[in-house]
Amino acid sequence: MSFKPYAADAPAAVDRALKRPHLIERVLHSSYASSSLLFIGSSDGTLRSYEMDERASIARWQATHKRLFHGSCAFLDRWGVFITISDSRVKVFDLPLQVGDGGMTVDDTKGAVLFAVHEEVKTLCVLLQSSMLKVFDWKENEVLQVRVQHELMDNLRPVQQLVTLSERHVFVQGKKDWGVLDLNSGRMLDVRDVKQQVDAAFEGGKRVCDAVPLPSRHLARRRQHVMDLLLCGKRQAMIVWISECVKTKNGASEEKDEYGAFRDKVLATDDTGHGETLDMSSSRLCLKVERVIEYDMAPRWVFYHHPFLLLDQMEHVAVYNFRTLRIVQTIPVKALYGLCAARNVVSTTMKPSAEIKDDCSATLITVSPPFDIRTHLMVPVAQQIASSMGNLHLENAVALCKLCPDESPLSDTEQRKLYAEYSFELFWSARRREAVDLFIETDVDIMEVLLLFPQNLLPRKASALRKANSITNKERVIDDGDLLDSLFALIWFLRRKRKACLHSEKDISSAGTHSCRSLTAPEESALELIDTMLVKCFAVVAEQAEYAKQAKHALLELVKCQNWCDIGEAEVFLRAHQQFKALLAFYSARRLHRKVLELLEGLERSAASEAVLFEQSETDRDEEQLQSSGDSQSSHDYMVLIAQYLRTLGKKHAELVFEFSRRILSENPALGLSIFTQREVPDVTTDIDPAMVLQHLKSSPIAFSGSDLTSPKQIVDDVAKPVLPLTSSRLLAIEYLTQLIYEKSRQLTPRLHDEVVYLLLDSIQAETPQRQRLTSRVEAQGGVTGLLRRKLLQFLEFPGAAYHPERMLSRTPIEMVSEHAALLSKLGRHREVLQFYVIKLRDAALAEAYCDRCYESKAADSSIYSTLLQIHLRPRCHMDSLASDTASPVICSQHPPLSRFSSSGLHIEAVNAVISLLNKYAERIDVPTALELLPIDVAVSPLASFFRRVLERQVERYRNGQVKKQLSKMENFKVREQLSAKRKGSVTVWSSQCCGSCGKQLGVGTFVRLPNGNLLHYSCQSIQ
Q: Which biological processes are named by the entry's GO terms (predicted)?
């Protein structure tokens, strides 16, 4: 307090003193008239006015106004009126006040007991005796118009004080409780957190004086005219403000992270919403404590005289700097009756300084016993700033510059230098949050801030570290104890600088649209420095257990998105701190695919070697050694990561895919195969050609031996669904092609479909021992050969297979009857397939199932059943044909001549099979052909079911025909009746009627009547 903002007081001569000054309640002032008027309000309702001279040295009594004073009354010089409550009604008087002026009574204010006014937003809140709160708006025609009204809740009654905080919010103080009301919605804001803090600090929430509205110290809120609120207790006062409630997912960690270093939303101009414009219409508004003032003596009341806060502490008036909340002076005035501001500094209002021209110093008037009126001139703000800088009180100087920008004598350069010096002073005094705000505001060079930190965190570029004119003290470096807190502040600073750089990338046109521009070289250099330092900071903070999760998440988000990190420096630092997951994401974002794969492969080999050492060691490793690996995983996990990454690379990086997939194919063939079968390339046209993949799989060695995966148990389990053991490159290629074909994920050429058959045939030949012969039935084949044959048969019968069956017939051994049958079926040669099943395999059930499958899939008509009957009942003809097929794969498909045989020349099984077919499929078999083929001496009784179903079908067909015939007759009669009715209808054509198409009169010529009743000329009907 070496410098006092208020000069020595000067008493004012009063020509007529008050007889009962102890009745004084308030001191008011109005500058609306040509002269300065001082008003003394007494508890008896009297308002006395005194005219002050220019020097405020003489107070001349002017007038006495009876029944005009009220505790809520106010002089509104901008409105040009004085508002008070008289006779339980709100009255408005024009300024200057005139003796005998009755004023204008505001309608709908009968029973008014309190009111509060906000002059800037032109809002008046009036409380009636019925606890009804009415809101009025001051219109341009100088009329108060009702906006809305609300009935207050019971817990706020009786109301003791109203304070209008904004156009939409009013503070209501009840006898036992208080709250803030949204005037538009009638909803109370959330004040639970503030009440808890007030109750804890004010010993139960009891305040010692009325709440005081204060202008916000933040420019954006001052422009909105949103007021803060001062609540005073016995030992401290709290400034609360309206803010948006933000619920955090991890409250504990958010409290520790006071800078918001890990917060998703980052502002480029201010910290956690302090500088943001308040969304008044938001439904998530609440009250929060912004600042706290400490004092030794509780004030009787508080007055705001920009840029100072004055507290009446009975023995004196304490003067506090409004920004720093530090006491700067005590004015020796005892038992004060009241005080008011006769003049304010220009920066008090938000109007431009050019509109307000007042060369007089800011003046404060106090009234104290017995009736002593004194004036206190404020020392010019420019002089206060100069004195504070001279005494090295940088905090006070900066506060005055911010609160009174119009009065500041400093140029922009001088002011920036002052802020920069003070910001570094704040940083070293552990007030790093305020320091970072000033760093951003004054646009301090990033390197100036980085030089505060240890050498191992700084960039490696020596030229960037050398600054000739640095305002920082290079000899002071942050020690290890404050490093973590300083890193949080640095992260917050860097993120805001990054936001500002990226935001400047978008220019706003005159139309209000955003147009992107390319970054300049200095901007890219700054972003490179920022992102590199952010990576380092996050990596260091991640080593702290309580912040590890948040720091790693933030690091991943930074390296995954577009960034300008120095690749070499970030790579070295992340490797040194074992942040391999972030390093992988960084490589991936920069499309450094080879580096990603090399890193993963190195981690996989290291994990594999560690696993081998661990298995060979007899003692377990300590828990600390296990945790020291950070994000390390097993060898298999890293292989999975390599496979997942390779799936995303297309044909442009085919060489990388083939190179790094060989080890996986050798160690884990199933996982390696998934690289090529479970592709994650968005566009199929950019994926690797399956022919290239096939050649790669054929040339890839498999480390597993065939004996490891061909146990009899596994082969038995695979009978229902043949799955090949991936023990060789050939089997790997087969599995790859078949999966693509079955899943239809890629369109393969017929040559690759043929390749599947060739590979399977070669595998069967290679796996079949020389002494082992191939069985005619696939189900009877055992071992690996049987598994391969089942795989082959499954592929041959697959409808989507596009191989060339005529080529496969010559390659398939004649012993593989089932495979031959599948190939012939693909060619549509069903007679030969049935010959194989009935004559070669002697399996009537298999032949019957084949007929059902062909008929139901519409691959053949019902004649296939007659063909099966012929093969059963005329076996000799087909045996001769089948014998000729052994010599040549081409079999004559001509039907043998029909002739009747006796059952004695046939096998009983064949006759029984035929009878079963006739009884089961009577509706699908041609009856004359079947009767012609049956032996002459066959018994009729087994065919009773067949004849019954045939006769029933004939009768059903006959009856259905009769029903259809009768229905057709009825329909014919109905249509004829309708036609007759239409023909009997008459149409009256008047001479005035016109054609619906051309609009001309119909006359007596030929016309056409449409179904909707419209009439047309006969020649116009085609046009219609």
A: autophagy; endosomal vesicle fusion
